[in-house]
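Priority: medium. Attachment 1 of 2:
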């Protein structure tokens, strides 16, 4: 179910969806189906469900409906978009189908087809579901296919470049909560795969965190300069390749000693290769690779750390 928390202001929604703010205000006045929440200053805040509804309405208009017809269609089905849009197929099945279609398009270098599939996904699902469930699962699949030599480096690079651009665009338009702590996001030592880090960055941005995204290729000495300059509360590191794990873990131990108040999180597909002993040793750092893992990790930090990640 889509989140009921108001977190997108009207400017962010306008940029994300390509719809005029004036149109959103007009729909709000004329149709009770979209009623954004208000913050203490009286500014509109849209929930994930509102984003879902607006996307669905825009998709219907694109296919020839008037706005009143689209709203009437939705009203007739009790505003239950999930059941109405999915009809006899579950969201999970359709998400898997779209992920497979997107993968096939990317691996055959069909950019227009990939864009069409992704646009269809965004018209049916929330931003969170598309990016975390569909693109996230696709990331894992592409990684495994490349490691098992089922696709070439060229295929992996093309798919990665496409997904990175799309995810980065979504991240750029998400609003930041000034009361949330700063987060520094960087790849592990010698690590060049960024998609896992981008997915987690997106998750944090959706939670309102200000994330300074550095990506790959950052020397340890440069990272220290950035930490000293911006004083982040959390350092997030992603490692995909097994051969980079050892150096990355040694580096993180040094960082932990140098910055004892800095909370460190380690994610990426590479943690699957860690032995149980190593996982136990670094258990407080390991974030995991699923949304559930991420939520549990943040909750644990919020509960036990002296400098909680989430302000009450």
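Attachment 2 of 2:
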């Amino acid at each position: 179910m889509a989140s009921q928390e108001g977190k997108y202001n009207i400017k962010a929604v306008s940029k994300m969806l390509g719809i005029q703010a004036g149109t959103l205000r007009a729909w709000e006045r004329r149709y009770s189906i979209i009623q954004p929440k208000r913050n203490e200053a009286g500014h509109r805040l849209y929930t994930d469900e509102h984003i879902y509804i607006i996307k669905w309405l825009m998709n219907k208009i694109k296919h020839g409906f008037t706005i009143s017809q689209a709203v009437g269609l939705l009203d007739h089905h009790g505003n239950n978009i999930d059941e109405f849009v999915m009809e006899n197929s579950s969201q999970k099945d359709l998400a898997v189908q779209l992920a497979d279609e997107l993968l096939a398009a990317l691996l055959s270098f069909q950019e227009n087809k990939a864009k069409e599939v992704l646009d269809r996904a965004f018209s049916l699902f929330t931003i969170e579901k598309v990016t975390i469930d569909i693109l996230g699962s696709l990331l894992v699949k592409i990684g495994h296919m490349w490691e098992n030599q089922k696709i070439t480096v060229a295929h992996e690079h093309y798919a990665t470049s496409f997904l990175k651009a799309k995810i980065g665009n979504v991240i750029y338009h998400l609003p930041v909560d000034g009361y949330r702590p700063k987060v520094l996001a960087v790849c592990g030592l010698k690590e060049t795969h960024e998609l896992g880090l981008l997915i987690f960055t997106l998750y944090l941005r959706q939670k309102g965190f200000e994330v300074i995204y550095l990506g790959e290729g950052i020397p340890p000495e440069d990272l220290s300069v950035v930490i000293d300059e911006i004083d982040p509360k959390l350092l997030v590191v992603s490692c995909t390749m097994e051969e980079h794990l050892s150096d990355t873990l040694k580096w993180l131990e040094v960082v932990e000693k140098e910055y004892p108040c800095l909370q460190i999180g380690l994610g990426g597909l590479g943690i699957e290769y860690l032995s149980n002993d190593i996982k136990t040793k670094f258990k407080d750092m390991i974030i995991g690779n699923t949304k559930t893992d991420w939520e549990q990790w943040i909750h644990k930090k919020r509960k036990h750390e002296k400098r909680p990640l989430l302000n009450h």
